[in-house]
Amino acid sequence: MPPARRAIPFDRTTPPHLVSLILLTSLGALGMNLFLPSLPGMAAYFDTSYGVIQLAVTGYLAVNALMQLVIGPMSDRYGRRRIMLWSIAVFTLASVGGMLSTHVAVFLMFRMIQAAIVAGLILPRAAIRDLYSQNDSASMIGYVTMGMSLVPMIAPAFGGLLDGLFGWQASFAALALAGAAAFALAYYDMGETAAPSTGTLRQQVAQYPQLLMAPRFWGYALTAAFASGAFFAYLGGAPYVGSEVYGMSPEVLGLYFGAPAIGYLVGNGVTGRYAARVGTNPMILIGTVLTVIGLGLSLVISLAGEDGPLVFFGFMTTVGLGNGLVIPNATAGMLSVRPHLAGTASGLGGAIMIGGGAGLSTVAGVILAGSDSSHPLIWLMTLTSAASVLSILFVIWRERRLRMA
């Protein structure tokens, strides 16, 4: 029997409350952002290079992408609630392991296991699509990610503060505590939203070709991948730019690092308010164009000799703004190509998005190695954002062709 549409707090027979979805999504963002200001110090602690310790970002993203390929179909087969609970439990235990690690290889192993929390990013979106139409789900996803966007705004500053007071291990202790709290929340409030499935997991995975053969799915997925790719390149390169180019301490870097989240908060708020009225594709196009304009201005000002933390991090708010307009709407588009495969589409689309992000994060680290300028990173982000404009233009063209057919 399908779940009731009305959410009753802490009633497992009804869909999860919107606040619960925001908090569960926030845990996935917290796992990515909290410890980032500590990366240079962690490299010194483990007596390794910045390139090796950066695997805590790039490797995590790669495993994150692979896990989405499994978690999505598993949630279609076994339900959103069960997979969410298992993923949070694994993340919590891995956070404890990372905190206690004394060797970089052991630490990186636990860090990769932490990627199980990707369920917190994809399953709330799938749950929303279970309950709402495409435009309405874009609006609801926008509200969820608007609330979640406070985390990348606050987390780096909080992580830098924890590092300054107690060392990098404190960030992983905080992640373990947050994981335990999220498990309790999901257990008591997250009712099942997916329709019962009678097929096997193999049959669920076998339906991937339905998505892979859909041009619109690829258009939305690549739009999201390129748009978020600029942000992932920022994640991989901004710690180096802040500490090595601008000489910032972890505490100060943490304060500046959350700049994109300010734009992300605004962008998701606009999506939540206007997506159902304006439509997903126009919102995406506006977001991609704004990002290219912002990064282009940053590059021009920087090349003119006005490079500095305020210019670099200030213009990164446009990346967050663009992502706030693009990601919820592109996600709703992906999940609506084949609505009965919402979990699978969320996982596959997320894998494409985060897998591409892992690659761009690695590229950012490589091109910045030994550099004394932010220019290589800004160029990479600008070109990636331009590709997102082309991708959504393809979707618009494709839908116009389908209407004319």
Protein architecture, described:
Helices cover 81% and strands 0% of the residues. It has 19 helices and no strands.
Secondary structure elements and their pairing?
Blueprint lengths: L17 H16 L5 H7 L4 H4 L1 H24 L1 H21 L3 H10 L5 H13 L2 H15 L1 H17 L2 H21 L11 H5 L2 H5 L2 H31 L4 H8 L1 H20 L1 H27 L2 H29 L4 H27 L6 H30 L1
Helix pairs in contact: 1-7, 1-8, 1-9, 1-10, 4-5, 4-6, 4-18, 5-6, 5-7, 5-10, 7-8, 7-18, 8-15, 8-17, 9-14, 9-15, 13-17, 13-18, 13-19, 15-16, 15-17, 16-17, 16-19, 17-18
Total of domains: 1
The major beta sheet can be summarized as: none
What fraction of the residues are assigned to beta strands by DSSP? under 5%
Gyration radius (Cα, Å) is 20 Å
Give the N-terminus to C-terminus distance in angstroms.
38 Å
Average per-residue pLDDT, rounded, comes to 82
**Structural class of the secondary structure composition?**
mainly alpha
The geometry reads as globular
CATH superfamily: MFS general substrate transporter like domains
CATH architecture: Up-down Bundle
- By DSSP, the count of extended strands is 0
Percent of residues in helices: over 70%
Number of helices: 19
Q: Extract low-pLDDT stretches.
A: none
Compressed to H and E, one letter per element, the order equals: HHHHHHHHHHHHHHHHHHH
CATH class: Mainly Alpha
CATH topology: Growth Hormone, Chain: A
List keywords for this structure.
single chain; 405 residues; mainly alpha; Growth Hormone, Chain: A
What is this entry, summarized?
The protein has 405 residues and is an all-alpha fold. It is built from 19 helices and no strands.
